[in-house]
Design brief:
GO terms for molecular function: glycosyltransferase activity. The protein has about 350 residues and is an alpha/beta fold. The chain is built from twelve helices and ten strands.
Length: about 350
C-alpha cells in the first residue's frame, strides 16, 4: 500500500499541466525584458553640462554677444556632420562653400575611436568636435545631434540655422540658393525644415518599442511623430532641443531587444518635441531627399557611380513642399568622381 502522502502519477501530471500557463503568465513579471544598451551615466553628465552652457549663453542679452557690436553682421548656417567614416565628399562640399566665408561654420562629430582624418581643406580643417560612440537602434544618435547643436550654439552667436548632415550627403544646389531659402521672410518668420509625420504604418510598433505605456504620460500615442533623421533647425528650435529634459528622459530609454527593428529614436525625438512645442514654426518637410525604394536592412537606396548624372540631380531636387530639396543621400564613396564632373555645370548651377 502506497504512503498517504504519495501523489499518484496522474495527479503529478495534472499539476504539471496546470503550472505551464502560470509560468507564461508570471515569467514576464519576474524576469525583466531584455533591453538594448543604455547611454552611460558619465556621457549623460558631460552632455548635460554642455547643454546648460549653450542654453545659458543663448538666453543672455544680445548685447553680451560679440555680434551685437557689429553693424552689419549676417546670420550664418552651421553645417553639422554626423559621421562614422571618412568625409570623402569634402572636395564637393569645398566647392559648395567656396566664396562664402563668413556665412557658415562647420562642425564634425565622430566617435573617439574612429580613425577619421578630416580633409586638409580650409572649411573642414580643425572642425572635429569631441564626440562619443554612436550605434543604431539607440538614443546615442540623438545625443550626438544635440552635442553638435550645443557646440554650434556656443561657438558662434551668429549661427542662426543648423543643418544636420551625414557623410553620405551631397548638395543639390549652390550655397546662395540654400541661403536665400533659409533666410526668406526675415528673422521673425524663420522656420525649421524638419519632416513631421503622424500617419506612418509603423508608428504603432515604434511607439511601443520600449514597452507598454513607457512613454506615458509625457508622450501619448496621439502626439508621437516620425520624421527624417536629417533636418535644418532655426536657432530658437536648436535652443529648444538642447534645453529639453522632459521628453529626453523618455526617448533615451532603451528599446526592448525584441523591438530592435522598430527602434529609431533619432527619427522620433526631434519631430515629436518640435511638434509639441512649436508646430507652426516648422515646415513639416525636410530639405534632404532620401530614396527609400529598395530599402536594405533599414538603410535607404545607395546611389552608385553609374547612376550619377545631371538628370539624377534634377530629379532629386524635386519636392512636394514649397521649396526644392537642397541635399540628398545616400551616395556611395565611389560617386565622388562623377559628382565632381558635374559640380560646376549642374549641381552648383541654378
Amino acid at each position: 500500500m502506497a504512503p498517504p502522502y504519495a501523489a499518484s502519477p496522474y495527479v503529478l501530471s495534472l499539476l504539471l499541466l496546470l503550472s505551464i500557463p502560470a509560468v507564461f503568465l508570471l515569467a514576464p513579471r519576474l524576469i525583466p525584458p531584455r533591453t538594448l544598451p543604455t547611454i552611460p551615466d558619465a556621457h549623460e553628465t558631460e552632455d548635460l553640462a554642455l547643454f546648460r552652457r549653450a542654453v545659458l549663453l543663448s538666453a543672455a542679452p544680445s548685447s553680451s554677444s560679440p555680434s551685437f557690436f557689429r553693424r552689419a553682421h549676417q546670420p550664418k548656417v552651421a553645417f553639422l556632420f554626423l559621421t562614422n567614416s571618412d568625409l570623402v565628399f569634402a572636395p564637393l562640399w569645398e566647392k559648395f562653400f567656396a566664396g562664402h566665408a563668413g556665412l557658415f561654420n562647420l562642425y564634425v562629430h565622430a566617435a573617439p575611436a574612429a580613425d577619421l582624418a578630416l580633409p586638409a581643406t580650409p572649411s573642414f580643417r580643425g572642425r572635429r568636435i569631441p564626440g562619443k560612440a554612436t550605434a543604431r537602434a539607440s538614443a546615442t544618435l540623438i545625443s550626438a545631434a544635440r552635442r553638435l547643436l550645443a557646440t554650434a550654439l556656443l561657438d558662434d552667436p551668429d549661427n542662426h540655422f543648423f543643418a544636420l548632415l551625414s557623410q553620405s550627403c551631397v548638395p543639390l544646389h549652390s550655397f546662395p540658393t540654400l541661403y536665400r531659402t533659409l533666410t526668406a521672410g526675415g528673422r521673425r518668420r524663420r522656420r525649421s525644415f524638419i519632416e513631421i509625420l503622424d500617419d506612418e504604418p509603423t508608428l504603432h510598433d515604434r511607439y511601443y518599442a520600449r514597452g507598454d505605456d513607457v512613454m506615458l504620460p509625457e508622450v501619448p500615442f496621439d502626439r508621437f511623430r516620425v520624421g527624417s533623421q536629417f533636418f535644418v533647425l532655426a536657432r530658437k528650435h536648436a535652443v529648444m532641443v538642447v534645453r529639453d529634459r522632459r521628453l529626453w528622459n523618455k526617448f533615451k530609454l532603451p528599446c526592448l531587444v525584441r523591438s530592435k527593428e522598430s527602434c529609431y529614436p533619432e527619427e522620433h525625438y526631434f519631430p515629436t518635441l518640435l511638434d509639441m512645442q512649436d508646430p507652426e514654426g516648422c515646415t513639416k518637410f525636410t530639405l534632404t531627399r532620401v530614396n527609400w525604394t529598395g530599402m536594405v536592412d533599414g538603410h535607404p537606396h545607395t546611389y552608385q557611380p553609374g547612376e550619377v548624372s545631371g538628370d539624377l540631380i534634377k530629379e532629386l531636387r524635386k519636392s512636394n513642399g514649397t521649396y526644392s530639396h537642397m541635399f540628398a543621400r545616400k551616395f556611395a564613396p565611389e560617386c565622388l568622381g562623377p559628382l565632381m564632373k558635374i559640380a560646376d555645370s549642374v549641381i552648383l548651377k541654378d
